[in-house]
Amino acid sequence: MNQILQRRTFGRFAMAGLLLVGAAVAFVRPAHAADEAPDALVKRLSVDVLETIKADKSIKAGDVNKIMALVDSKIMPHVNFQRMTASAVGPAWRQATPEQQKRLEEEFKTLLVRTYAGALSQVSDQSVNVRPLRGPLDDKEVLVRTEVRGNGDPVQLDYRLEKIPGDGDGWKIYNINVLGVWLVDTYRSQFTQQINSNGIDGLIAALVARNKSNSKG
Questions:
Q1: Spatial distance between the Cα atoms of 86 and 190, rounded to a whole number of angstroms
Q2: Entry pTM
């Protein structure tokens, strides 16, 4: 039971982290976003999106359709979700057909959104502290460390980003760390067990069933 509770808590913070970074993009987009340092980007967007979430009653109430639309329009353009899904699936991703890969991405996104929609209802007086970026300024992959502060102890929330030349804003998220646990790594262990037992189609079927179950919850 403790492990189940820990996974739920982890998941809520993880999805909230995705939303913190992505949802404010439409509201504040600098002319030279591609030149913006990744830690500055995370800080600016985090502040903006916290205010947006606090002001949107339907998001805070867990409106899944509203959250899904938010994810599609504001978050996905700033996440390398193909890389995130491929990493979660593991080596079997390379053996999957393009159609299977597409289905995996769709079902994985739905899983995250539906499972963790309730995370946004917990946003109240939180603030985000972004730590200074370490390493060379010309790195193509970086780690941005943050803390979400509110009631209780601060929550460690870190992001791995990559810079894709000529692609949108430049920086895209491909993994998230909450309280010392990486999101992709957590799902990889679950997906590997399913693939070993039932193959890629078995994993897709399991994700579909899980999403249907979550939609009834």
A1: 14
A2: 0.75
